[in-house]
């Protein structure tokens, strides 16, 4: 239902499907290399220190101590057994049928989900460090691309469309994320999940939004066949509006005096 190119690598493509999974693809190779799991989480913007580095260090020490015996086993033709084991790992036997596992993915990883429903929207930040995803479960999630973890940002309640893909928008900071919520658009703080502002002006469901960083304008498209342009209020415009109000007030005073 949704596709998004990585902003940090020209070869990485991210996809969100009706199975609730977000998959990472390297277009130079066959098969996806990563599936995001909503149960794998972390707190904060950047990934914590992982203990796997110490485990890998211990494994490397064990490998170095037994390197001689391993090299002898390789010479005796043990690589044939390894090739057979790899072939077995790429297939699952269920009864009399034999099914191939998704390339590069085990059966346990293939069942991971990012949303309890279809993934309706994907949007990466301009720095390529985070990914925002929306789902038919009316949830918005922030992912750390480097670690593949859910950052557990609790975005406030929203109501999203379930039958159509949605186009999200993010500021360059990225401090704000814009998401279509039925006939309105909500702007959320990316790091806290609180609602910054709600934009209302469409008469039907909003499907897409795009943020123009140069002019700081937001463009939204809806089923009412209208494209609205949202721009922040500038001091010059506010002064003109204040002057108009003052002139209207003076005119009303003159009318009152004339009466």
From TrEMBL:
SUPFAM superfamilies: WD40 repeat-like (SSF50978). Keywords: DNA damage, DNA repair, Repeat, WD repeat. WD repeats lie at residues 1-28, 112-153, 199-240. Residues 51-63 have a biased composition (Polar residues). SMART domains: WD40. The keyword Nucleotidyltransferase does not apply. GO terms for cellular component: Cul4A-RING E3 ubiquitin ligase complex; nucleotide-excision repair complex. Pfam families: WD40. GO terms for biological process: proteasome-mediated ubiquitin-dependent protein catabolic process; protein polyubiquitination; transcription-coupled nucleotide-excision repair. Residues 46-88, 233-259 are annotated as: Disordered. InterPro entries: Rad28/ERCC8/Ckn1/ATCSA-1 (IPR042238), WD40/YVTN_repeat-like_dom_sf (IPR015943), WD40_PAC1 (IPR020472), WD40_repeat_CS (IPR019775), WD40_repeat_dom_sf (IPR036322), WD40_rpt (IPR001680). PROSITE patterns: WD_REPEATS_1, WD_REPEATS_2, WD_REPEATS_REGION. Residues 77-87 have a biased composition (Basic residues). This is DNA excision repair protein ERCC-8.
């Amino acid at each position: 239902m949704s596709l998004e190119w990585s902003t940090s690598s020209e070869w990485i493509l991210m996809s969100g499907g009706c199975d609730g999974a977000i998959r990472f693809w390297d277009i130079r190779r066959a098969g996806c290399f990563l599936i995001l799991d909503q149960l794998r989480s972390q707190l904060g913007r950047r990934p914590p220190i992982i203990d796997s580095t110490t485990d890998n260090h211990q494994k490397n020490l064990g490998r170095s101590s037994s390197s001689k015996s391993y090299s002898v086993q390789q010479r005796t033709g043990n690589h044939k057994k390894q090739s057979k084991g790899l072939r077995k790992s790429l297939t699952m036997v269920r009864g009399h049928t034999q099914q191939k596992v998704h390339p590069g993915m085990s059966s346990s990883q293939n069942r991971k989900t990012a949303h309890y429903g279809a993934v309706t929207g994907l949007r990466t930040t301009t720095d390529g460090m985070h990914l925002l995803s929306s789902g038919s479960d009316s949830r918005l999630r922030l992912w750390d691309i480097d670690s593949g973890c859910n950052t557990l940002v609790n975005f406030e309640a929203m109501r999203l469309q379930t039958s159509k893909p949605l186009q999200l928008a993010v500021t360059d900071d990225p401090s704000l994320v814009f998401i279509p919520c039925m006939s309105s658009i909500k702007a959320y703080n990316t790091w806290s999940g609180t609602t910054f502002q709600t934009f209302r002006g469409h008469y039907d469901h909003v499907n897409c939004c795009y943020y123009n960083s140069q002019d700081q304008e937001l463009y939204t498209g809806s089923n009412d066949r209208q494209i609205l342009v949202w721009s922040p209020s500038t001091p010059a415009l506010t002064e003109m509006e204040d002057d108009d109000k003052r002139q209207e007030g003076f005119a009303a005073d003159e009318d009152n005096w004339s009466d």
